[in-house]
Amino acid sequence: MAAFGKGLVAIFVAGLLAALPKLAMADVRTADGQSMRHSTLGTKAQAEQDVLRVAAASATDARPTDVRKMKLGIVIYSTDAETVWNAFRFGVFALKQGESVKVFLLAKGVDCEKLNTKEFNVTGQMRTFVDAGGKILACGTCLKLRHSEGTELCPISTMKDMYDIVKESDKVLTF
User: Fold this and answer.
1) pTM here?
2) Is residue 152 within 8 Å of 146, Cβ to Cβ?
C-alpha cells in the first residue's frame, strides 16, 4: 500500500506541474537603449509585455542623464600656486566635458591672482576657466580684511553666494 501511495503522489505532483504555466524569459531592449531581462509564469510574449510595462513606468520617474549637466562647486582657500592652478585646471576640464562649474574664493584663496610663478600661471588658468564658461566669485569680507577689492576676474560676493553654490551643486570640491 505504501508503494502504491507514493506512486499516486508522484502522479498527482507531475500532473499538477504540467498544469502550471511554464516559466518564460524575455530579453527586451527598452526605448532608452537599456537591456532588461525578465521572467514570468506564462508565455515569452507575456514576459516581454511585463518588461515593457515596467520600463515605461520607470522612464517617467527617471531623469535623463544625458540631458542634465552636473553642477560642480569648487571652494578655493589655498595660496599654494600649484594647488590653485590645478583647481582651475580641473574646472576647465569639467567645463570641456559639458559640466557647469562655479568657483568661490574664500579666506587666503582671494589672493589667487597674485600667485603666478614661473611654473604655474594661475591667472592664465583662471582666464581660461572663465573663457570656457566658468564663474568665479570672491568673498567680499575676505577681500576687505586684506584691503583688496574685487576684480573683473574675481568679483566681490557674499556668503549667500557661497551658500547658493553649495546648495545648487551636485558635488563640491575644496582646495
Assistant:
1) 0.62
2) no
